[in-house]
Amino acid sequence: MEEVLRHYYASPRNPIGADGDFYTAPDLDPIFGRLLAKQFEQMAEGLESFTLVELGAGKGLLARDILSHRRFPYMILERSPGMRRRQEELLKEFDVTWVDELPRGITGCIFSNEFFDVLPVHRVVRRDGALKEIYLTEDFQEVEGELQEAIDAPLAEGRIADINLEARKWIRRIAESLDRGYHLAIDYGYLREEFYAQPRGTLMCYWQHQAVENPYVRIGEQDITAHVNFSDLMEEGAAAGLETLRFSSQMDYLTGFGILEEMEKLATSGDALSMQRLLKMKKLILPGSMGERFKVLVQWKK
Fold first, then answer.
1. Model confidence over 14-24: pLDDT tens digits?
2. Judgement on whether residues 156 and 88 belong to the same structural domain of the protein
3. Residue 279 lies in a domain
4. Does a structural domain hold residue 100?
5. Structure pTM?
6. Residue 254 belongs to a domain
7. Contacts of residue 139, Cβ cutoff 8 Å, sequence gap at least 6
C-alpha cells in the first residue's frame, strides 16, 4: 500500500480536486481554512509563541486559506515530491517552511486534514480463533499467513480489519515533537467498537470520484484509503502525554466556529456566486456528506 500510494501521489496528474479522484474540504470553500484559523487563534492565547505544522498539505489550499486569515509561523511536512511542488507554487507569497521530519520543541499546533487515512495498514482476519495477516502474491492474489508484527484486534470470527500501526507511531512522534501545545486531526473514521464492527474492514479506493471496492485494479492510478481508528489515536496519545480535549463530528465542530452564520450571509445575498458557495459549504456539514463521516480530534500537551 505504501509503495502504491507513493507512485500515485508522484504522478504528474493531480489526484485531488474536480479533475482528480477525490476532493477534500479545502477544495469546497475557503471557509474551512478560515474557521480553522479561528481555532488556532484561540489555541494561541496564553502561549508565548505559536507555530503551525501541517502534516500532508495536499495542494496547499488549507495552508493558503489559514495564512490568508492570519500569518502564523508555518511548517509543512510533505512526503510526496509532486505534492510539495504544487504547494510551493501555490504558497510562494507566504512564509512557509517545508520539513522532512517533525522538529522538536514545537510550541503551537501540529495538525492534519486527511493524513492518517492514507497511511499503510495491515489487513488481518480471524480464522479458527487466531489472527492471520492477509498478504498478496506476485499476481495480486490474497493469501493468509502469520502476523508480521504483534497485533491485538477484538475481531469476530471471519471478520477483517485494517490495522494502522503507522498511525500509532505518528501519534508518538507528534507528542515528542510538541514542547507545549496541541494536536488536531480531521479525518474519517470510527471509535473502536464501530471500527471493528465493519465485517470486511474499511479499505476503499477512489477513482474519478467513484468509490471502488477492489484495490487490485488500476494499481497506482487510484487512491487507496482506510478509515481511522480514533480510539487508537486517543489511547496512544494518552500514553505519550497527549490529553484528549475534544472528539466530535466535523458538523458539530464547524458549527461551533460559526459556519452557519457564514452560510446565512450567503443565503441572504442571493447572487449566483453566493448560492454556489452555499451548496458547497453544505457538503462540509450535512450528515449524508462530510458532516458526520469526518471526525475532529483535539489533543493537548502541557
1. 677 666 666 79
2. no
3. no
4. yes
5. 0.93
6. yes
7. none
